[in-house]
Design brief:
CATH superfamily of the largest domain: Ribonuclease H-like superfamily/Ribonuclease H
CATH topology of the largest domain: Nucleotidyltransferase, domain 5
Shape: elongated
Strand content: 5-15%
Distance between the termini: 119 Å
Radius of gyration: 43 Å
Number of domains: 5
CATH class of the largest domain: Alpha Beta
Helix content: 40-55%
Length: 521
C-alpha cells in the first residue's frame, strides 16, 4: 500500500511533475517510493484539474480531493466503488444494530444479498466499527456546584427478612448524586411508586441540607406522564414538589443514559461500596437496612479520590453545600384521601394496601375520612381525628390499638398474648423459687394454655402477700412431688412460709421388721 503524504509533500510532487520531471527523478529528489508517486499522480489526473488549478486551492478545499479511499488508487488496481456503496448504508446499519436480536452477521448477510460483490464479513465489520467510533464520540461536561441533582434507581434490588413472617421483602434502591462533588445519597424504598419516590427525594434534599437549581430524573412513570425531548410532561405531584422546594424538574432523553452519566456511575459505585460490604448481612426491617446503607455511605464519602485531592465529603462541604438553596420550613409529603365505613370488627380498610386499621369501637357503622401518607394513616370523624397509626404495608393484615377495643375484647386479646415465656419472665422478677414453681406448673400439662390460670393465680399472690412471702412459700412448695396454685395458696394462708425449713429427715435405720426388696423377687 502506498505511503500517505502530507499536503505540502503532495504539492511538491505536483510542482516537480509540472516542471516535466519523471517518476524516477521525482523519487530521487523527494525520497518517496515510485508507487507512492504514481498513486498520487493518478489521483490528481482523475480529478480533471490542471496542476496550476490544484496549487491555487486552499488546504481545506484540497484535502477532500486528494485524501480519498487509498484502495481505489493502489498501483495496478481498478477504482473500487464498494466503500461508496457501503458508506451510504452505514447509518442505517448502526440504528438496526441497536434493535433486539440484530447481529453484525445478520446485517452482513443482508448487505451481501444486495451487493454480491461487496466486502467480506471482516471488512464489513471493520468499516462499521470505524463509523460507530466516529458517531459515538463523548463530550465532556463541566458541572457547576449546586447546579442540579441527578436521580435514578439501581437496576439490582436489595431486601430484608420480615421477622414476623420470614418473608424476603424486595426493595428498590434510589440513588441521588450532585455531579460537581459526586456527593451521593442512597436509600432503600419499598417500591418505585410515586409516594415512595417523592419520600426518597425529600430525604435526599434533607441529607444534602439544601436544594439544587434543578433535579434531573429518568423517564420513569412515577414522575413523567408524557416523555418528550423538549417539553416532557410531569405528574401533578412532581409539579407540587418543584413548587414546594423552588427547583426545576427535568427529564433525560429517552434511551440516552449519558444525559445523566454521573448517577449512572453512582449506581455502579453503589454496587461496589454499599451492596458488596453488606452482602453477607441479614436485616429484619427497612429501617435497619437503611441504617446500614447510610453507615457504608458515610465511609465511602470520606474515602480520598484516586486521581485528585480530597474526598467527596470535603468537596461537598467546602465548595458546594453553601451554594445550595435553603430548604423550606417543612418537607413535602404526598397525601392520599379516601373514605371507609367502620366494619363490625371496628376497623377501616385502606384499599391500596388491603390493610385494616382500628378505630374506637363506638364508631361501628359510620363512614370516616382516611388521610394516609407513606408513613402514617390518620382517620377522621368530621374534623376530629379519632385514630393515628403507623402505615403498615402487609397485605390483608390488621393494625389494632388496645384502647379502641371493648373491655371484653381487650381481656381476650391479653389472654391470647400469654405464653410460657411471659409467665417465666414475670416470675423471675419475684424470685428464683417462684420461677421454678411456674416452670413445673407449665411442664405438668400437655397444653400450656391449661396451666395459664394457675400461673396467673400464683403471680397475683405477690400482690396479696408480698414478694418475700411468696418466694418463701414457693421454696417450701418445691419439696412437694406435685405443685399447683392451691398448694402455694394454703402455705400462705396457714403461715407455713414463716416457719424455717428444717433439715431433711434421715432415713429410718434398718431393722428386722422391715422387709427389703429381696422379699418380692
Amino acid at each position: 500500500m502506498s505511503q500517505t503524504l502530507r499536503m505540502h509533500q503532495i504539492k511538491r510532487i505536483i510542482e516537480l511533475s509540472q516542471e516535466g520531471r519523471g517518476v524516477w527523478e521525482i523519487t530521487r529528489l523527494t525520497g518517496f517510493s515510485r508507487n507512492t508517486i504514481r498513486n498520487y499522480l493518478r489521483r490528481i489526473k482523475d480529478l480533471g484539474l490542471t496542476a496550476s488549478e490544484l496549487l491555487t486551492l486552499s488546504e481545506d478545499d484540497f484535502k477532500p480531493l486528494v485524501y480519498s479511499d487509498p484502495l481505489q488508487y493502489q498501483a495496478g488496481r481498478k477504482p473500487d466503488t464498494r466503500f461508496e456503496d457501503l458508506s451510504q448504508a452505514l447509518a442505517h446499519y448502526c440504528s438496526e444494530l441497536g434493535k433486539r436480536g440484530v447481529t453484525r452477521q445478520l446485517l452482513w448477510e443482508e448487505y451481501r444479498q444486495g451487493n454480491p460483490n461487496g466486502y467480506g464479513y471482516s471488512q464489513f465489520c471493520d468499516r462499521l466499527r470505524k463509523y460507530m467510533q466516529k458517531s459515538e464520540a463523548v463530550m465532556r461536561f463541566e458541572h457547576r456546584p449546586g447546579e442540579y441533582m441527578q436521580v435514578d434507581f439501581a437496576g439490582d434490588k436489595i431486601g430484608y427478612v420480615d421477622r414476623s413472617t420470614g418473608e424476603w421483602v424486595v426493595c428498590d434502591v434510589l440513588v441521588c448524586i450532585l455531579p460537581y462533588s459526586n456527593y451521593m445519597y442512597v436509600e432503600a424504598l419499598r417500591s418505585q411508586r410515586q409516594e415512595d419516590f417523592i419520600k426518597g427525594l425529600t430525604h435526599a434534599l434533607q441529607y444534602f441540607g439544601g436544594v439544587p437549581q434543578s433535579i434531573k430524573c429518568d423517564n420513569m412513570k412515577t414522575a413523567v406522564v408524557r416523555s418528550c425531548r423538549y417539553e416532557p410532561e410531569f405528574t401533578e405531584a412532581m409539579e407540587y414538589v418543584s413548587a414546594h422546594y423552588g427547583t426545576t424538574i427535568m427529564a433525560a432523553r429517552v434511551r440516552k443514559p449519558r444525559d445523566k452519566s454521573s448517577v449512572e456511575k453512582g449506581v455502579d459505585l453503589t454496587y461496589k461500596r454499599i451492596y458488596a460490604p453488606l452482602r453477607s448481612q441479614t436485616f429484619h426491617s427497612l429501617e435497619q437496612l437503611n441504617a446500614a446503607i447510610h453507615t457504608q455511605l458515610e465511609l465511602f464519602h470520606t474515602r480520598p479520590f484516586q486521581k485528585k485531592a480530597g474526598s467527596r465529603k470535603e468537596w461537598f462541604e467546602s465548595e458546594e453545600k453553601n451554594l445550595l438553596k435553603a430548604l423550606p420550613s417543612s418537607h413535602y409529603e404526598l397525601r392520599h384521601v379516601t373514605h371507609g365505613k367502620v366494619q363490625r370488627n371496628y376497623h377501616v380498610i385502606v384499599g391500596e394496601d388491603r390493610h385494616q386499621y382500628s378505630v374506637p369501637y363506638e364508631l361501628i357503622g359510620k363512614k370516616l375520612k382516611i388521610v394516609y401518607t407513606a408513613d402514617t394513616v390518620e382517620i377522621y370523624e368530621n374534623l376530629t381525628r379519632v385514630a393515628l397509626h403507623k402505615r403498615n404495608y402487609r397485605k390483608n393484615g390488621y393494625t389494632t390499638q388496645a384502647q379502641h377495643m371493648p373491655a371484653n375484647h381487650r381481656h381476650v386479646a391479653q389472654q391470647k398474648g400469654w405464653d410460657d415465656e411471659y409467665f417465666l419472665r414475670e416470675a423471675s422478677y419475684i424470685g428464683h423459687s417462684v420461677q421454678e414453681v411456674v416452670k413445673r406448673i407449665l411442664g405438668s400439662r400437655v397444653f400450656y394454655e391449661q396451666s395459664f390460670n394457675s400461673c396467673r393465680g400464683i403471680l397475683r399472690l405477690a400482690k396479696q402477700y408480698g414478694n418475700l412471702r411468696l418466694e418463701a412459700a414457693c421454696q417450701r412448695a418445691l419439696d412437694s412431688p406435685y405443685v399447683n396454685f392451691g398448694l402455694v395458696d394454703r402455705i400462705l394462708k396457714n403461715h407455713l412460709d414463716k416457719i424455717p425449713l428444717t433439715e431433711k429427715v434421715q432415713d429410718i435405720p434398718h431393722h428386722d421388721q422391715i422387709r427389703g426388696s429381696e422379699t418380692y423377687k
